[in-house]
């Protein structure tokens, strides 16, 4: 028998949970209540409940602070969070604390009891199991979803030993001989865009939200469990299960299910995605085969005709592939030559010409697009290293590392893929030019010549530090050694010398002279002139005319 603690500052909410919970069916003998996090912690210390349901928005101590205390002092405690869609900070803490489930207000009976059942299942598994593996992971507060995720990942990676881990089979329904399994994979095409716009740049929160949508769409006799693939940042894995029937029945239901998921994700969050369906299997140990076919199905989708929301079955006839895809490697020597010549336009022209050849193909699969992208990044990286670009300025791990240097690798249609290739080429060309220019002898006279010609503009030292890749302190020191003035002093000198010359023309108004020298305010010019010559422009003009 178990003890449950409900923490919520709203009494009607606590009462609703008491009424909706199937406490007898779940084996719960005592349900306690607290009105805020502080009193909740006190009850936790005194009564030691097995499970806590906690609201995130409360006075005194909110749910996030409560979870932080639980994470530190009660690592084995199971928690269920109750909150709303937009509480990103709260959701982040929920992920860190590995809660059993995340319920949205108002809580309904089905969602509440499903979450409670998950918690009770793992509590019972912990009691029953003598397996060292289960003890270790439950001690680390592996919630049921996380536990299921690890089991499925282990199966998909062909590391799961059924005989050694039979206690886990019940958690994923694999102890039922009539159970059918299948895998679908989703690729989130605009992950970085949606993460930035809708999830405070937290990709983990986006993936968490996608998982919630997948897991909420339970159907009669057909269940789904979605989670992010930790080794492929854009990939979501969806395991479908169905009791009884033929394998074809599971596949038949998987296709419309995934179409509904990708449609809802676009409506809710603006997520553009595509999916592949693997062939169903009767034995959970064969789930890896279904996963591999789902991945292959996504990779076969034609980028030239790619609509967001495409769902493809593994084993379906693949799009006609060209006998030979143009090689990006053959363009690298030409791109290097254009970079050496400092011709940015030619670099872009070469990339666009390659993209036109891809566009002219009969079909261009997503798998080929990703392969070329990885190859392009690696080849340009090698070229950049040859030119002396520091390794820390280059992305690591191929195209997957592009965001390290501020390049989004999102693309959901061919035009965006083409633009991405251009951005990558521009970035590497800039890094190569920068490295090359830093090796050339620096002539401080170039700065003086620029000031002489552009004294009326807003001249900042950062313009020169960025152009010559030298520190501010070094540039200022070098300039003063050469000309006896600091850079700002020299700009002022040139302007004042020019001001005296212009004041000699009586037809020019002081306001006009001020603007010609780059001062937007006549009073500011007059003040600067007085500070420099100890008399105002008008006084200087009168003195000059008297002389």
UniProtKB/TrEMBL annotation:
CDD domains: REC_YesN-like. GO terms for biological process: phosphorelay signal transduction system. The keyword DNA-binding applies. Residues 445-543 form the HTH araC/xylS-type domain. The modification 4-aspartylphosphate is found at residue 55. Its main location: cytoplasm. One of its GO terms (molecular function) is DNA-binding transcription factor activity. It comes from the Bacteria. Residues 3-120 form the Response regulatory domain. PROSITE patterns: HTH_ARAC_FAMILY_1 (PS00041), HTH_ARAC_FAMILY_2 (PS01124), RESPONSE_REGULATORY (PS50110). GO terms for cellular component: cytoplasm. It is found in: Cytoplasm. Keywords: Cytoplasm, DNA-binding, Phosphoprotein, Transcription, Transcription regulation, Two-component regulatory system. PANTHER family: HISTIDINE KINASE-RELATED, TRANSCRIPTIONAL REGULATORY PROTEIN HPTR. This is Response regulator. It comes from Cohnella xylanilytica. The lineage of its organism: Bacteria, Bacillati, Bacillota, Bacilli, Bacillales.
């Amino acid at each position: 028998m178990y003890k449950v603690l409900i923490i919520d500052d709203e009494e009607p909410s606590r009462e609703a949970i008491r009424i909706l919970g199937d406490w007898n069916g779940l084996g719960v003998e005592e349900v306690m209540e607290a009105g805020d996090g502080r009193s909740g912690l006190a009850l936790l210390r005194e009564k030691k409940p097995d499970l806590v349901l906690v609201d995130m928005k409360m006075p005194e101590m909110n749910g996030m602070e409560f979870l932080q205390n639980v994470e530190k002092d009660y690592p084995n405690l199971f928690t269920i969070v109750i909150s709303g869609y937009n509480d990103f900070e709260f959701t982040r803490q929920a992920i860190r604390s590995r809660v059993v489930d995340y319920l949205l207000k108002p809580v309904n009976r089905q969602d509440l009891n499903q979450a409670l059942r998950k918690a009770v299942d793992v509590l019972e598994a912990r009691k029953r199991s003598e397996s060292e593996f289960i003890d270790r992971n439950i001690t680390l507060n592996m919630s049921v979803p996380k536990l299921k995720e690890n089991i499925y990942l282990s199966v998909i990676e062909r590391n799961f030993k059924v005989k050694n881990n039979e206690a886990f089979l019940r958690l994923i329904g694999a102890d039922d001989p009539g159970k059918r399994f299948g895998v679908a994979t989703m690729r989130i095409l605009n992950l970085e865009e949606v993460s930035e716009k809708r999830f405070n740049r937290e990709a983990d929160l986006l993936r968490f939200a996608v998982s919630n949508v997948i897991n909420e769409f339970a159907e009669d006799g057909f269940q789904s469990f979605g989670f992010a693939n930790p080794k492929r940042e854009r990939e979501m894995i969806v395991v479908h299960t169905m009791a009884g029937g033929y394998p074809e029945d599971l596949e038949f239901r998987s296709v419309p299910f995934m179409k509904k998921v990708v449609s809802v994700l676009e409506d809710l969050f603006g997520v553009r995605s595509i999916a592949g369906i693997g062939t169903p299997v009767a034995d959970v140990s064969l789930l890896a085969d279904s996963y591999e076919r789902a991945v292959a199905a996504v990779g076969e989708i034609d980028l030239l005709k790619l609509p967001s929301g495409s769902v493809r079955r593994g084993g379906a006839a693949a799009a006609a592939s060209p006998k030979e895809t143009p090689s990006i490697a053959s363009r690298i020597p030409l791109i290097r030559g254009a970079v050496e010549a400092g011709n940015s336009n030619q670099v872009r022209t070469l990339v666009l010409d390659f993209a036109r050849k891809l566009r002219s193909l009969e079909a261009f699969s997503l798998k080929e697009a990703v392969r070329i992208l990885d190859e392009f990044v690696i080849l340009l990286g090698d070229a950049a290293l040859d030119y002396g670009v520091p390794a820390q300025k280059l992305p690591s791990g191929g195209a997957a590392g592009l965001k390290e240097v501020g390049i989004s690798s999102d693309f959901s249609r061919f035009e965006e893929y083409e633009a991405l290739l251009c951005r990558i080429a521009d970035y590497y060309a800039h890094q190569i030019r920068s490295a090359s220019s830093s090796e050339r002898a620096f002539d401080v006279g170039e700065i003086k010549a620029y000031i002489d010609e552009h004294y009326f503009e807003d001249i900042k030292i950062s313009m020169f530090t960025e152009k010559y890749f030298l520190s501010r302190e070094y540039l200022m020191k070098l300039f003063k050694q050469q000309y006896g003035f600091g850079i700002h002093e020299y700009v002022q000198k040139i302007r004042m010398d020019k001001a005296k010359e212009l004041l000699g023309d009586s037809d020019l108004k002081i306001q006009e002279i001020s603007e010609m020298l780059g001062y937007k305010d006549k009073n500011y010019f007059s003040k600067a002139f007085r500070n420099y010559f100890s008399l105002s422009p008008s006084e200087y003009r009168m003195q000059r005319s008297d002389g």
